[in-house]
C-alpha cells in the first residue's frame, strides 16, 4: 500500500511540474470561451445529472482518464477546490473503459464519488466528440446560462472566477 501511495505521489509531483511546460496554445483547440456547452446527461451509482438542469449554477466540467496523469492530477486538485465552494457544481467525467479502474482511481485520489461519472465508451463516446477532446483532456467552467467562461483552469483561477 505504501508503494502505491509513493507511486501516486511521484506521478502527482511530476505531473504538476510538467504543467509548467505545457504548450499554452493547447487551450485554443476545441470548444472556446463564449461557446454554449454541449448538453449531456450521465448517471452514476448515487445520482443522475443533466447539464441542462444545472443552468442557474456555475458548473465545472472536468474531463479526465486514469491513464492520463496530467488530467487525473488536475481533476483531483479541482475536485478538492470545488468541494470548498458552495456556489459551484462539479461534474467530473472519466473516459476510462473499465469501471474497476475508474473505481480504484476514485478511491486512490480521494474524490467524492457522487460528483464522478464514467463514460465507458471512452474516446469513442459522443460526449468525447461533442466536447472536441481529441486534442487532449481539459476542463470547462460554465456560467449560470451554460456558456463557457473559462477553459483549462487551475484551482487558483477557479477561486478568482467564482468568488
Can you describe what's shown?
- The protein has 163 residues and is α/β, with parallel strands linked by helices.
- It has five helices and seven strands; from the N terminus they run αβββαβαβαββα.
- The strands form two sheets. A five-stranded mixed beta sheet has the order 5-4-3-6-7.
- Strand 6 and strand 7 (148-151) form a beta hairpin.
- The protein is globular and about 35 Å long.
Task: Break the fold down into its secondary structure elements and pairings.
Blueprint: H1 2-19, E1 41-43, E2 48-50, E3 58-64, H2 69-82, E4 88-94, H3 99-108, E5 116-118, H4 126-130, E6 139-142, E7 148-151, H5 155-162
Parallel strand pairs: 3-4, 4-5
Antiparallel strand pairs: 1-2, 3-6, 6-7
Helix pairs in contact: 1-2
Amino acid at each position: 500500500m505504501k508503494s502505491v501511495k509513493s507511486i501516486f505521489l511521484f506521478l502527482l509531483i511530476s505531473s504538476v511540474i510538467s504543467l509548467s511546460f505545457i504548450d499554452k496554445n493547447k487551450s485554443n483547440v476545441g470548444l472556446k470561451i463564449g461557446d454554449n456547452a454541449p448538453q449531456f446527461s450521465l448517471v452514476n451509482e448515487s445520482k443522475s445529472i443533466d447539464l441542462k438542469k444545472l443552468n442557474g449554477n456555475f458548473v465545472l466540467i472536468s474531463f479526465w482518464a486514469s491513464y492520463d496523469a496530467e488530467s487525473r492530477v488536475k481533476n483531483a486538485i479541482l475536485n478538492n477546490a470545488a468541494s470548498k465552494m458552495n456556489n459551484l457544481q462539479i461534474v467530473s467525467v472519466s473516459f476510462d473503459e473499465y469501471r474497476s479502474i475508474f473505481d480504484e482511481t476514485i478511491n486512490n485520489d480521494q474524490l467524492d464519488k457522487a460528483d464522478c461519472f464514467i463514460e465507458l465508451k471512452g474516446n469513442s463516446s459522443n460526449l468525447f466528440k461533442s466536447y472536441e477532446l481529441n486534442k487532449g483532456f481539459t476542463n470547462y467552467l460554465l456560467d449560470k446560462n451554460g456558456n463557457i467562461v473559462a477553459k483549462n483552469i487551475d484551482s487558483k483561477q477557479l477561486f478568482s472566477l467564482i468568488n
